[in-house]
Task: structure prediction
Amino acid sequence: MEVNKKQLADIFGASIRTIQNWQEQGMPVLRGGGKGNEVLYDSAAVI
Result:
């Protein structure tokens, strides 16, 4: 399932900053990013 940063934070019970930290450490991103573009994650790939 495609989820955004806020939805992923809710799934994990974590803060958005924690999700950003995990992403910087190599958590897979489905698509997006960059200025003005929402980052989307594949929840199955992240878990």
About this structure: The chain has one domain: 2-46. The mean pLDDT is 94. The first strand starts at residue 2 and ends at 4.
